[in-house]
Each structure stands twice: as C-alpha cells, then as structure tokens.
Amino acid sequence: MANRVTNSNPPQAKNAWPLIGHLHLLGGSQSPHKVLGTMAEKYGPIFTIKLGVHQALVVNNAELAREYLTKNDKAFVGRPKALAFELMAYNYAVFGFSPIISGKRFSLDFDEQSGFQDLGGYKKMMKKTGKQLDQILEGWLKDQKLKRSELAAQHEEGFGVEPPPRRTMAWWFMVVHMAVDAGDAQKSSEVLIFIIGVENVETVECVRGLRVKSVVDVGYKESDTKNLVYLKAVIKETLRLHPVVPLSVPHESIEDCVVGGYNIPKGTRLMVNLSKIHRDPNTWSNPHEFQPERFLTSHHHLDVKGQHFDLIPFGAGRRMCPGDTFALHEMRLTLASLIQQFELETSSNEPVDMSASFGITVSKQMPLEVLLAPRLTRDMYGLGT
Length: 385
Ligand code: HEM
What we know:
Layout: E1 3-4, H1 10-16, H2 23-26, H3 32-43, E2 46-51, E3 54-59, H4 62-71, H5 83-88, H6 121-131, H7 133-154, E4 159-161, H8 169-182, H9 185-192, H10 229-241, E5 251-252, E6 257-259, E7 262-264, E8 269-272, H11 274-277, H12 324-341, E9 342-346, E10 356-357, E11 363-364, E12 370-374
Parallel strand pairs: 3-8
Antiparallel strand pairs: 1-2, 2-3, 4-12, 5-8, 6-7, 9-12, 10-11
Helix pairs in contact: 6-12, 7-8, 8-9
The protein binds protoporphyrin IX containing FE.
C-alpha cells in the first residue's frame, strides 16, 4: 500500500510506490483524513502514497509538519496543478491555487525575526481587512438590529430557527465588503473567490458552555475579546477537533530537497494531516474529547497562528491561510453576539450529530437545528420598554 520514506532508498522507492488511486476513492464512505490517519498507525508519521500518477507524502505529526512548513517551506511553496483550478480559477489566477507564489504579486522574502509575515500584496490586504473587521461589521449589525427586534417581538416565547445550511449573511456581507474595499473589478472577483474554508458551523455545538453573560453588555465589540477567554478557548478547541480543512491544502515541492534525512524529489505533493496532528495523544490528553478548558490550563500557551505546530488549523509558513485573523474575528463576533442575545437549545435535547462530509472544506452532514429564545429585555432589542 504505502511505503515509509527511508534514507536508504529514497529515489528508488519511487518506482515501487504502488498506485493507490485518487484520494477520494480511498475510504469509500470514510473521510480521506481518517483513512490516512489509520494508515499512519501502520506506516508511521510519514509515508508516501500514489495519487493517480502523482506521488504524495503524508505527514502526520507536529514535528514533521514543522520541518516541512518552516525549514523547507520554500521548496514546498508550490500547489499541485489541476484541471479544475485551471478552468475554475482563471488559469490559476486565484492565489490559493496558484502553483508558485512569485513575481510582482508576492514577496518570497523570509524575515528571520518575524517569520513568514511578509507575503506581500493580497495577503497583506487580507490581514488588514481582518483587523478592521470590527468597523466593517458595525454597519451590518445595525441592519440586523431591526430584523432581530422583529423576530424577538414576534416570538417572545422563543422560536425555532434552522440556520442557513452554508454560510451566514454576516459572512457574505464581510466578503462582499472586502471585495469592494479591494478597489477594482479584477481584484473584487478574486477576493470573492476566497470563499473557501470559512464556515465552521460546528462551533455552534459549543455555545451552551460559554460564559459571556457577565462580560459584555448589549453589542459585543472586538475590543471585548480580551475578556472572553472561555469563548476563545472554545473556538480553539473546535478548530482542533474539527479543522475546516482536515488535510490542509496540498503543497508541491518546486525543487529537490532533503527533509528529516529523506530525499524528496521535485514535484512531490505534500499532505499535512491536521486532523491527526490535532488528536495526537502525545500532545493532547483525551484527544477526542471536547475540553476547551485545556486552553486555559495545560495548553494556554498555544495559539492558532502557525507558530505552534500541535495546532495549525490555518496551516503555517508561506502558504498559511491569510484569512486567519478575519475568520477568528468572525467566529468570535458571531458567537458572542448570538450567545449574549439568545438562549440556545437543540430541539430534541440530544447531543448534536457531528458527522461531517468531506469536500474542499468539511461541513456538517446533518443540518443543525437549534431553538433560539430571546434572553434580553425588550428595550435591549431596541423594542422600547
Ligand atoms: C476557520 C476558518 C478558516 C480555516 C480553518 C482556514 C484554513 C486554511 C488552510 C489550512 C489553508 C491552507 C494552508 C496551507 O496551504 O498550508 C488555507 C488557505 C487559504 N485560505 Fe483559509 N481558512 C479559513 C478561513 C479563510 C478565510 C475567511 C479566507 C478569506 C477571506 C481564507 C482564504 C484562504 C486563502 C486565499 C488560502 C490560500 C493561501 C495560499 O495559497 O497562499 N481562509 N486556509
């Protein structure tokens, strides 16, 4: 099936690597990251597989992920080419699918002090927009206040809501706003195509345990975040257990390199099994349990910014997700506002079914149904007393 990469036979092993077939066919009904995780039990934290005619390296632990995404990040800066990206992404013009980040649009400079922060052009723009999100959202929240008031007035005893199966209006608002901010039509369309990886409705599973009541009054602001330590822990724990892109986005080596003593030929695909890393029992006690408290105690020092390789839901290095700040803002703001203003319950009082379906991003297999009941007084919804 798969081969361990060894010092003794790296290039020769290439011919012996068997054809496993396309990744999506690997598991039948099982998600590919789970299948690869099971294979890691047998073959170890690093092994190769064949994806059609391509050879791919699967990395399953934090230490190796660090080796590939820091020291060898430059060699693995490429993305595999695919007909789908050629056709759907304007011949690789969308930078997430662009095989090599180079030329005017990006700087490949690596700053020894600050790491991989200076990625130029779009990444900077996205980071900036992420930081400004608080102001951007203010407009949206004003619009929503009216709708919220109406809902609360109509349903003082509580009302059932089935959230939109895909993305929220808040999210669309932000993306469109970014596109407009980007200035011209070409950039706008590119920014709009960033619509990958953002949804994470699983987070809603966790809202009942939150303690925001005493922290914020009406109208959560990003500046309140520093006080919402438990909410931040919940988000981290959700991203740990349910990474949105469980196998990250594949990289491809643009030159031969040696990693961990193994010779890796140019053109090798790299798959970092985030899901496996995030549940490594050597790092995480009760790895399959949802325990946000760990981020207030044993793992309080870990963030999701690509510096701590035990927890890299946004990846790391040159191709790290530039939407991390944006996504974190969105999740905090949405969750905090929701919890602060409504009581949430599942309709059956059963635990939420967390089974996931695999696509570019992971989404819930079963629709999430929650009951919302207003928990503030009428005047706080802008309804008068
Ligand atoms: C919880 C939310 C999100 C998660 C967990 C996530 C995760 C990821 C991951 C794992 C990658 C691949 C990193 C790598 O190749 O090493 C990625 C890439 C990317 N993400 Fe996200 N993402 C999220 C939200 C967003 C948002 C909100 C945006 C844009 C508004 C975005 C835009 C991108 C882009 C453009 C890339 C490609 C970067 C490149 O190729 O250099 N993501 N994301």
